[in-house]
From TrEMBL:
Compartmental location: Periplasm
Species of provenance: Nostoc cf. edaphicum LEGE 07299
Membrane spanning stretches: 43-62
NCBIfam families with a match to the protein in the record: 3a0106s03
The keyword Transport is annotated on this UniProt entry: yes
Keyword Signal: yes
Gene3D superfamilies given in the database record: Periplasmic binding protein-like II (3.40.190.10)
InterPro entries hit by this protein: Thiosulph/SO4-bd (IPR005669)
UniProt similarity note: Belongs to the prokaryotic sulfate-binding protein family.
Taxonomic lineage of the native organism: Bacteria, Bacillati, Cyanobacteriota, Cyanophyceae, Nostocales
Protein name according to UniProt: Sulfate ABC transporter substrate-binding protein
Lineage: superkingdom: Bacteria
Length: 398
């Protein structure tokens, strides 16, 4: 997608965003702050906004030609598709996400549907698919026609981009580099914590059985692996020590479920293992459902960042780009972020993150690693999870 097409696309959706996010004065302040910061945060953003002024007159002229605007609209990806959805009473939107976001989306989607109906008098019908992030990524590349993808890691979204389904620069279309939900890793123990699990080092002890998903199929499991690895690096160890430690830990793993949901069921329902690594939000959700769950959040941890993106090729095919982009932006509003918080995700909104509700709810992490610390997802996948990488070598030693 060219440089001038992206700002035009944002302008097309702006009127809805203003209606959607002005529900309260606080949300209006929030949106204007985030939008201003986003648009001026880079040279490309500045140039894009400047170019809008140059191309806007051309675009307006093309769109006002006495009913002949359809020809010019077809030159901009998504522009010819939008009226197709807008002319219908119902519009369908397919959301493909990783397993542990299901509860959050089920709480947020009805609110978005209600708002869209109020503003546009159109009913949005959601089709939803949840599973391991790696498996979901492959399904989209192989033909699952997702309009929006919410995945466990940016590396998975990048794979869909490389397959030609998402235009480059997707992470710049929304705030926070496309990251819409966050969490950290938690260690779930048996009642009373009989193995005395307090930190990452305890997982390498003899007699401790650990349950974690397979990083070949699960984004959550990749985060688990990186949390283990980074726990050594962040405390002064080198890569040799990190390899030695993680190898010991995986020797204590009797089974590798395909995704986080299956790993939780293996631990909780089937009674396997002494400790489970999972998202903090998944543990909090279980407690909210009345389950008695004991867990520890290690104070050396990793920021688990989950991106959201519109699948450009599919929304243009389906004619629903406008509603897809509106839904993605809705997930950043204070109301949606508060729903994520209720279900155990740490907010990406800085204002909400500083509220007493959030600081009381989530244990403080002293040392928080990031993907950037480890070289980014492309380097991480090549080093750790590609065929013949560190993970395969560790598995070969079991």
């Amino acid at each position: 997608m060219s440089l001038w097409q992206r700002p035009l696309k944002r302008l097309q959706a702006m009127s809805y965003d203003k209606l959607l996010l002005c529900e309260t004065l606080r949300e209006r302040i929030y949106v204007e702050h985030r939008t201003y910061r986003f648009r001026l945060s880079s040279l490309k953003g500045f140039v894009s906004l400047f170019l809008v002024g140059t191309v806007l007159s051309v675009a307006l002229a093309a769109c006002s030609g006495g009913g002949t605007g359809s020809n010019s609209a077809s030159e901009t990806p998504g522009a010819s598709a939008t009226p197709v959805a807008a002319s219908k009473d119902n519009v369908e939107l397919t959301l493909v996400s990783f397993a542990v976001t299901k509860a959050a989306h089920e709480a947020i989607i009805p609110k978005f549907v209600e708002q869209w109906k109020k503003d546009r008098n159109q009913t949005v019908v959601f089709r939803q698919s949840y599973g391991g992030s790696g498996s979901q990524t492959r399904a989209v590349i192989d033909g699952l026609e997702a309009d929006v993808v919410h995945l466990a890691l940016a590396g998975d979204t990048s794979k869909i981009e490389k397959a030609g389904l998402i235009q480059p620069g997707w992470e710049k279309e929304v705030p926070n580099n496309g990251i819409v939900s966050q969490s950290v890793a938690a260690l779930v123990t048996r009642p009373g914590n009989p193995k005395g699990i307090k930190n990452w080092a305890d997982l390498a002890k003899d007699g401790v059985k650990l349950i974690t998903a397979n990083p070949k199929t699960s984004g959550v499991a990749k985060w688990n692996f990186l949390a283990l690895w980074d726990s050594v690096i962040k405390t002064g160890g080198d890569e040799a020590k990190a390899t030695e430690f993680v190898t010991k830990v995986y020797k204590n793993v009797p089974i590798l479920p395909k995704d986080a949901r299956e790993a939780t069921d293996t631990f909780a329902k089937q009674g396997q293992g002494d400790v489970l690594i999972n998202y903090e939000n998944e543990v909090i959700l279980a407690q909210q459902k009345g389950e008695k769950v004991e867990y520890v959040v290690p104070d050396v941890n990793i920021s688990i960042d989950n991106p959201i993106a519109v699948v450009d090729k599919n929304v243009d095919k389906h004619g629903n780009r406008e509603v897809a982009e509106a839904f993605v932006k809705y997930l950043y509003t204070p109301g949606a972020q508060q729903e994520f918080v209720k279900l155990g995700f740490r907010p990406v909104d800085e204002i909400i993150a500083q509220t007493k509700e959030v600081t009381d709810k989530f244990p403080k992490v002293k040392t928080l690693g990031t993907v950037a610390d480890l070289g980014g997802w492309e380097a991480i996948d090549q080093k750790f999870f590609a065929d013949g990488g560190v993970f395969d070598k560790i598995q070969a030693q079991k």
